[in-house]
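Dear Dr. K.,

Following up on our conversation at the group meeting, I've run the structure prediction for DUF1972 domain-containing protein from Nonomuraea mangrovi. I'm pasting the input sequence below exactly as I used it, so you can double-check it against your construct before we proceed with anything downstream. Let me know if the numbering doesn't match what you have in your notebook.
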Amino acid sequence: MIGTRGVPARYGGFETAIEEIGARLVAAGHDVRVYCRGAESRLPEHKGMRLVHLPAVRHKTLETLSHTALSVAHLLRSPTDVALVFNAANAPLLPLIRMARIPVATHVDGLEWKRAKWNGTGQRYYLMAERLAVRWSRELIADADAIQDYYQKRYHAPSVMIPYGAPIQEGCDQELLSEAGYKAGGFHLVVARFEPENHVDLIVEGYLRSRATLPLIVVGSAPYAEEYSRRIATLAAGDERVKLVGGVWDQDLLDAMYAGCASYLHGHSVGGTNPSLLRAMGAGAPVVAFDVVFNHEVLGGSGAFFADAGQVADAIEAVEAAPEAARDRGDRGRERARKHYTWDDVAARYERLCLDLKAAR
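The predicted structure tokens came back this morning:
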């Protein structure tokens, strides 16, 4: 598994997927190797997966590709039956894997070229990388039907649709919440990296327009978006109801926050199946999401939606006016996650894909 920060998972959706899928593949009897970067402790193994730690250039446009290049160089000296490459940005390195006669599947992620952090050159690179991933991957992996449709329509390229899984929580650890200063049902929640396409500023602006009495807890930050982060901080500074708490790395506490929030506000707009959204659904959080096809696909009929600050304000006020109705939506979201987004099913589909790739080698 190549192209991410690796495991233990502490950063994003790719890393969580690798941890959940990789551990299950190990349990099924497979040898799994994960390439890692930036780990505080360089563990040789995690949940049965063998970890290879390699450096990377600390720059937003070079970090992923530089680390993947070193990972591929290591891979060529230590062959494997199948390589799973995460992120289409790594596509220029696929020919090297193919030259080694290693079948490769590329998880293309979302529409990365639409992210505001990339300038014209970055956008052109990601569009080129999409084309190269189509050309040089034995299989493409899409994590949503809408991403699958995009590659079919734009490139006439088939793909395998495998979503992420959702951890299911039946209740909330209220004691843990209380220790951290929160009360179950007593706050609205945002969990997101501070990037324009995640619309954290829009959510904060909408909240400020509302007559909400419950505070808005904003979990997240961004390593390369200082100007955008300052905008969010400036908005929040005008109202003591908004609490910017930075990253929450205690996963048990974060689980309790998802399960205990009055509403979870999800502004992501350019990804496919978003892991943070699934985590909120699995916890039974009432979700208010940005109005894009990806979020509609995941939530089905269990979500409320917004497209501007006024609609954010309306949605928050509606949650506070009718908390039982909001909780009912959250319960329906959890049942949808339980039915459609299980890690056991996701891992089984990855196992089937890898066995097919090996058989066709």
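Two things stood out to me. The first strand starts at residue 33 and ends at 36. The chain has a mean pLDDT of 93.

Best regards,
J.T.
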